[in-house]
Amino acid sequence: MENTNCFHCGNKCETETIIVDDKSFCCNGCKTVYEIFSENDLTCYYDFENSPGAVPEESKGKYDFLENEQIIEKLVEFNDGNVQVVNLYIPHIHCSSCIWILENLHKLQKNISTSLVNFPKKSVRVTYNSTLTDLKEIVLLLSSIGYEPYISLEDYEVGKKQVNRSLIYKLGIAGFAYGNVMFLSFPEYFEVSEFWLEQYKLLFRWLMFIFSLPVVFYASTDYFVSAYKGLKTKILNIDVPIALGIFVLFVRSSTEIIFDLGTGFFDSLTGLVFFLLLGKFFQQKTYNFLSFERDYKSYFPIAVTKLSKENKEESVQIYDIKKGDRLLIRNQELIPVDGILIKGNAQIDYSFVTGEADPLSKKSGDKIYAGGKQLSSSIEMEVLNSVSQSYLTQLWSNDVFKKDKTSAFKTLTDKIGRNFTIAVLTIAFGAGLFWFLYQPEKALNVFTAVLIIACPCAIALAAPFTLGNVLRIFGKRKFYLKNATVIEQLATINSIIFDKTGTLTSNKENTIQYNGEALNQNQKSILKGSLRSSNHPLSRMLYNSMPTENTVQVETYEEFVGKGIETNFKELNFKIGSSSFVKKQSEVNNLDTSVHISINDNYKGQFVFKNAYRKEVKQVFNSLNENYDLAIVSGDNQGEKSYLKKELPDSTALLFNQKPEDKLHYVENLQQHDKHVMMVGDGLNDAGALAQSDVGIAISENINVFSPACDAILDASKFSEIANYIKVSKVAIKIIKYCFILSLCYNVVGLYFAVTGQLTPVVAAILMPLSSISIVVFSTIATNILGKKVK
Fold first, then answer.
1. What percent of the chain is helix, strand and coil (3-state, nearest 5)?
2. Under 8 Å between Cβ of 337 and 383
3. pLDDT (tens digit per residue) in 15-59
4. Cα–Cα distances in Å, from 86 out to 41, 58, 558?
5. Does residue 182 contact residue 267 with C-beta atoms inside 8 Å?
6. pLDDT of residue 255
């Protein structure tokens, strides 16, 4: 019986062969998976890879424990009664077909809304309607198509390995083969003419061929797969010349052995793969260290309001929250932990988690989940679990709501890497053709040596190591960036816009004066209760100025962005905000920053704020003025325009009475005039402008306003360092360019010896990873020296 490979999983059909649609399957499981894909028009799954599937395992009764509600509660990340989100570790994820089918689960199960794959961690995050399906059905679906999840109730994270053991195995095999091939090649190197060596020379050559097989067909497969995927998508990635060099060496060497033409180049072949993998292993260990340091240090400068037993409010760091603590969550604040709603009207937007923006109403006693944003008046909750910073990082980077600013942004590596690969291939083929015409026996050596010595690995490593290290350094200095690309975008900035209130002003030093009809004790209590729910800087300042007043829980609360708030308590209607919002007319009498108040549409008076600007404002603007277009775009009136004109550089544009949409349009207008815009705001009324700008930075005064619109969070105490951070970003790009120049010099020298036939492939294979390591060491040392200059 002729051995046939299964169309789905690629295994041999040893005992039986099932034929469906002229395709062979090794078992009913693989056949069933194929039929499922066919029925749902998903057979293009097989176009991405040959035999991409795993054999589905029998799972009858295996997942009955997932019917237990207590177990489900431990496994799911989010559960509001209608929508559940679960993150499943799937060991079988290995190729582009796996990613494609797992991100199209909604076509197999209509009650699944989204499924996002994290390929490096081999996990899929599934969002589904829990009223129409359940976790057991999701797991059974995954198992039925060959992607059985790994689930451990004792330690759910146990399957998520930090160390890539496959790389260690491949490195071990390549090293073992390289050592043995070198040993077997010694007689050939020294041209020893001894009787027994001559007798066994052919055997030695075939042994070298056998040792090369696992190196080519196992240890180096990642390079072939990467090169194939790149070419398939019409991208010349850095693995194309590497894969080509390995292929040419193996074919030529095998030909020489089979036809007894010579000893071949198996020493160069196995040495090349070994040193490539050694460099890759070094890269992985170093980069994992940088990533770990960044994850460990990336505590967002966010605090949350903790309530004591005496109902006193205290601002505490978010990672100090413990089980049993009672928290106050205001309007537009993020719920940082899972908990039980104790008091208040909860209207929670879970779009950060699910992508669905419809708010959910919750009543006292209901469970509420981390990641939701309160949209109504303040609520009180009891903490069930301590906060996870990694979960906040996940929300910040969630693709569900992230506006992709980087799609049109070409990184430095993108610009240089592709052209470099084209140049390397052109030189390799040109040099090979030249030597083939003049000295054919050197052609292969020259061709392979050029491909190896000029491998752009060093160029590919320069940016990730430099930017990764700068990312870590910024984190230590309380400047938290969403990703490394933000550093490159910071370096291109030529226009900077600042919000005023909460950004240029400090909430802690402002003075407040009330002008108008005196408020009685009951009205003051309602006013304080109204302000308690708002996160606007002026609301927070006014609330904090009333420490002795009682606080009343208002019955209804509504905040109008950029205008004010409206609340009701019994028969009293309060409007607090701008003059036009409260009095329904334009503000003309007072030019100071003011918050007006009316009760039942009867105007009562205004709170006048004497803004205290940050001490570093003048210094920051002067340091930025020479190289950047500066502007202040504020929602406040023009009361302080004359002061700002006197204190700030003359070229600074000053715009007042700007609504949130006006700020957004201002950013868009600058971008249409080829400006690269950085917006610095407080993350509240500036959310649209922060999202639209090339780089959006939210200033944090330790308040829990968590905005996915921003690209970075800057601790308010580091406001004076803005110019320095931009400068460091520019220097980081220079370091990458220096790495490119260093790599180019190395390549020019190496190419000279390779093209002239003076460099053997094995020597090139040793030098290539050394060049990569030297780039990593240079970039790391340079960025660490740079980091010492950042305060």
1. 45, 20, 35
2. yes
3. 667 777 777 777 666 776 677 777 766 666 565 555 555 555 555
4. 26, 22, 33
5. yes
6. 84
